[in-house]
Design goal:
Blueprint lengths: L1 H6 L30 E6 L5 E3 L5 H15 L4 E4 L6 E3 L2
Parallel strand pairs: 1-4, 2-3
Antiparallel strand pairs: 1-3
Length: 90
Amino acid sequence: MLNWSIEQNEHPVAIRIPCNGVISDRRTIDTNYSNLNKFKVEIKGENVAIIALGDFYQLGENVIEELKNKIGLNATLINPQYFMGQIILK
């Protein structure tokens, strides 16, 4: 995102630094920022959606796993990627 924010001149950009440090995870890095202000559904579930922004993403993954293991609920995990936006389905 840093490279994109330097190269483009159409949009203002703010990059948050995680207060919990940078945590590596299994997701691939998405470098296509053409869908600005769109939320990304990381895990498609039913009836319940967890919106996990920024530092709360890993917590959201844990909540999804706990709901599945403890009560058998398959929840949706949404990664907003932006503070405001619309949901896009994979």
